[in-house]
Input
Amino acid sequence: MHIQKTSGQAVAAGLAKQFRLQSLIGGFDRSVFGAFDRFDTLSASALASIHVNGLPRGKAFAGHMSYSTLSNLAPDVQIMTALREPRSRLLSLWMYCRGRTDDQLEGWGAWQDVVTLSHGSLSEFLNRDETACLTDNIAVRMLLWPHPLIPQGLPIEERYDSLLVSEASERLKGMAFYDVIENPAFVSNLG
Output
């Protein structure tokens, strides 16, 4: 379960090398797009990376996909994720989005408008309803999606924080592996 800007590509590449995996199925599921529904504006190649009707058959997945999407693959599926200190992840996400060029965003249609909200200040980016799906505790969102207390197009209401964090923590405990990338023992723990 690759949470954006948590070194997921590096971890996936290391696992693929270690286990001699020929391919990893990547991409996105619906959980990371919040209330965005203008998929008709995306190019065929962009749409090919978004798995809205389930995942293709495969042995290993390393994408921006929720726990519920991945857990529906098979009864014995093993799910892992890397977490990151939230402020560092948000700064990394903001800088990453700011660095996307028009060429890199070509084909992403109306989603490009969400990404380019990063061209304003960090505060503006963090306080837009359109970006809440990326910025407002994405780890909890991906662990619990879909959840009646997590709105798709708005920030999570603060009054639900304790309950949702508790539910997300329980979900983490059922994973094959999870750790925080800032942990100096991350690599040895993963090993």
Remarks:
- The radius of gyration is 16 Å.
- The mean pLDDT is 94.
- Residues 8-190 form one domain.
